[in-house]
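Table 4 source record.
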Amino acid sequence: MYQVIKRITSLMLNELSIKVNIANRYYPLKVATTEQEELVRQAAKLINDKLKAYGEQFNVKDHQDMLSMTVLELTTTLMTLQKKQADEQQQLAVELQELQSLLK
């Protein structure tokens, strides 16, 4: 039991504490790996870049409006990619089934 607690404590201590700036606000986060930290920082940069672009393109000053438009754009992109991936997986399954039937 002591070894399990020691291992959990060790894993918890290995978490990295970072602060991420989104729309001029800092958010403290804990990440498990440096790779995850890099991904979170890239995501925050993407969000801030989109906010800036919306602010300049539409002369919007309200952060809430810019955040809403950014969330909508990024979520739409994510959903499009997920649908494309699902469609490709379905197509691969059909092709695999056809190949398996040819081998019989």
